[in-house]
Amino acid sequence: MRLKTLVAVLGVGAVVACAPVQSGPTNSGTDEKTGQLRVWLFDEVNRGPKEAVVKEAITEFQGKHSGVTVDVQYIQVASRAERFKAAFSDPKSAPDVAEFGNTDLAGYVSAGGFSELDLGSWSESKDLVPTILDTAKVDGKTYGVPWFVGVRALYYRTDVFTELGLKPPSTLDEIATTAREIRQKKPDMLGISAGGKYLFAALPFIWAQGGDLAKQDGGKYTATIDSAEAKAGVAKYTELIKDDICPPATCAGNGGDASVEQFRAGKAAMTIGGDFNRKSVDASSAAGKYGVVPLPGKTAGSIAPAFAGGNLLGVLKGTQRKTLSNEFVQLLASKKYQQKMYTAMGNLPTFSDVQKQVSDSDKFLEPFTKTLQAGTKFVPVTPAWAKIEAQTVVPTMIQEVVTGAKNVDTATADAAKTMNAAFTS
Amino acid sequence: MTAKGQGRTAFAYLVPALLVLGGLLAYPIYQLVLISVYDYGQEQVSGGAPLVFLGLGNYQKLLADQQFWTVLGQTVAFAAVCVVGTLLVGAFLAILATRVRTWVRMTLFLAALGAWSTPAVAGSTIWLFLFDANFGFVNEVLGIQGFSWTFDKWTAFGLVAAQVIWCSFPFVMVTLYAGIKAIPGEVLEAAALDGASAFRTAWSVTLPLLRPIILVVTIQSIIWDFKVFTQIYVMTGGGGIAGRNLVLNVYAYQQAFAASEYGLGAAIGVVMTVLLLVITLFYLRALKRSGEVL
């Protein structure tokens, strides 16, 4: 009898839920003009100035729209994936407007999280730098407004270079030779602090050789990391993580932050760092003893294409205040507030004229804006990329090469295989 | 009251416990198995894509993956080392605790409880600081500044194993100490009167009496160490250089959950559950054979 009851209980359970849960369609269709607008922005180490600018924008916005309040919640970057996944699954807990990283875009859009934006009616939008605006597009449709952009260049120690009579490298090949020479003469120093997990430092090497991670063909991505050009780039980058430049025991496990940290600690003569690393380097032992140049390309005078990182502002699909959300995005991402955000946080603007304006007034930014103007590149815009990044496919490939576990041919071939599996799944 | 009526009353008393167990154990496992037979990613969760029934597809994919077998082997070996280490250290200190003066024992217990109650993330981070290549206390003492403990596969595994042993030996020590203390003094006295040596007493009297407790702590340790996540994730930066320090739980997280492949992740979860169930069954049988009343 007890067994029968158990079977009956299990049976009922099986009928009630015979498939994993799915949440319903999130498009509400309503468009209210009053009430509370909920906004998610990223929390930062030093949030004060950002919060002040955002408050200013809110005051202006609330002044224009009576009966509207704006509620901002600052969310942690580290736990953003969980927060956004939860928001997409449950529209009631979701914000109307959110800041998000441009590498997350494709995944969020395919999860049905963000709605398409029509920027045609917004006059300022024509000044957005096209390659940066591209990072807000999936299949030609725009889902966000670039709020700021982050780009990396070559940091080097001016005192070390002067002492050794060196000049900053002018071609990609010279980075290795210069770095090797420095370590030979100063064995305590890393020639250049490169990291085995520092994807955004490795990508320019691949792009500069004419290679890429993947190519798009009729909406489908295919890995090209095993092409001859990409392999040349991988070889050039992994050459840096060798005992005579940046020993694997120190550098193979480093990501971007740890790589810059070596430079901050005064242990590296060069590193690849972003405009956003400036404040932390200025607060380190390398302060006042460093310069920045664009990461050189294959030929002298050229600039290696950099990765266009940055954050977007978008409107969530489940919002009940679409018009208000759009207007708030256009206000917070406007030239006026990007200028203010630059002053407050040092965030690089995404409008070409505002970029020029800030780099004219601040010489430090020149190598970065030059890099931006030379043309930037991006990772494949597909939800599969989030998967490839989570599975650490490219860092693993680099680490396999630098530890000698695999040669460049095998490592790139294996990475291409894993990437293609993700692209076709 | 008839026998049948008695049975009913007993069942009624058990219902609340059964409901709790069903809700907390059976239902999640049922969901886990269910998800593992679907292609279930973030798009499917938020309703952006239809559900596709895969049958055993996720399992086939998993079992065909060369890396899964490597990681499984590493996990088993790593857990074995941790279990043996934990038991040896725990048993040694438990015996020591029965032989020393009260204040020494108190100090030992306080230190062990400190290690036990340290959160895994904090413990791992502190160990990383201690073993830091350039600024770590250990390298300073050994005079090997610049030596990276986490770079080489084997030193990295060794370091993490040491940390796992450090935070799990207190349980073994406290349990065994209680077990040793519970052995009636007359038994030991009788052995002494019969002229048994200390070793003989330990081997033929203490050890058999401790057997059930040793079995419990062994199985507990196996289950814990097989499921290690935090220490590997924190100390080797998510699985070591080129993923060579991956264990099953970290692998499942990285390949499946972080990549939003919940179906595949659930399949790994089911495989782990089955493996651990087999170990538990083995444990129950071993208990039965040793004459324990279950």
From TrEMBL, chain A:
InterPro entries: SBP. GO terms for cellular component: ATP-binding cassette (ABC) transporter complex, substrate-binding subunit-containing. Pfam families: SBP_bac_8. One of its GO terms (biological process) is maltodextrin transmembrane transport. Keywords: Signal, Transport. PROSITE patterns: PROKAR_LIPOPROTEIN. The keyword Signal applies. Residues 1-19 form the signal peptide. GO terms for molecular function: maltose binding. The keyword Cell division does not apply. Belongs to the bacterial solute-binding protein 1 family. This is ABC transporter substrate-binding protein.
TrEMBL record, chain B:
The chain crosses the membrane at residues 12-30, 76-96, 108-130, 156-180, 201-223, 262-284. It is a multi-pass membrane protein. One of its GO terms (biological process) is transmembrane transport. It is found in: Cell membrane. Keywords: Cell membrane, Membrane, Sugar transport, Transmembrane, Transmembrane helix, Transport. GO terms for cellular component: plasma membrane. It holds the Pfam family BPD_transp_1. Residues 72-283 form the ABC transmembrane type-1 domain. Its main location: membrane. Belongs to the binding-protein-dependent transport system permease family. This is Sugar transporter. The lineage of its organism: Bacteria, Bacillati, Actinomycetota, Actinomycetes, Pseudonocardiales.
